[in-house]
Amino acid sequence: RACFYALIDKTEEALQKLEEAIKENPDFKEKAKKESAFNSIRNNENTQDNNLYYRACFYALIDKTEEALKNLKEAIDKNPEYKEKAKTESAFDSIRENEKFQQMTE
């Protein structure tokens, strides 16, 4: 389902389904790194704050910490409201203890 939502540009739904799939089967994280259906999230050239935020979520879910932090920083720079949203976003659970993440969300 995550791939389907990604293919039809339903990014928020795709990330929610991806997170659910990874919780059920951690091996899916490796598959998601290579899955072409997620290229629309990975390669989206649109730098609107919501696209950057969702890209950060995607990268956090597949353990690409530096990419997640880079995109999150850009999203927060464009829209400071993402600072608060990131504090409770479950997609960032894997990087929540990261010093850079904590500095961004202080």
Q: What's the layout of helices and strands?
A:
Elements lengths: L1 H6 L3 H14 L3 H7 L4 H4 L6 H13 L3 H14 L2 H8 L10 H6 L2
Helix pairs in contact: 2-5, 5-6
Structural commentary:
The chain is 68% helix and 0% strand. It has 8 helices and no strands. The chain has helices at residues 2-7, 11-24, 28-34, 39-42, 49-61, 65-78, 81-88, 99-104. The longest helix is centred in the N-terminal third of the chain and has 14 residues, at 11-24.
Main sheet: strands, sense, barrel: none
**Rounded radius of gyration (Å):** 13 Å
Helix and strand content put the structural class at mainly alpha
Envelope shape: globular
Order of helices and strands: HHHHHHHH
Low-confidence stretches: none
Q: Helical region count?
A: 8
Distance between the termini: 34 Å
Q: Indicate the proportion of strand residues.
A: under 5%
* Total beta-strand segments: 0
Taking all residues together, what is the mean pLDDT?
Answer: 81
What percent of residues adopt helix (DSSP H or I)? 55-70%
In short:
The protein is an all-alpha fold. It is 68% helix and 0% strand.
What keyword list fits this structure?
106 residues; mainly alpha; 8 helices; 68% helix; globular
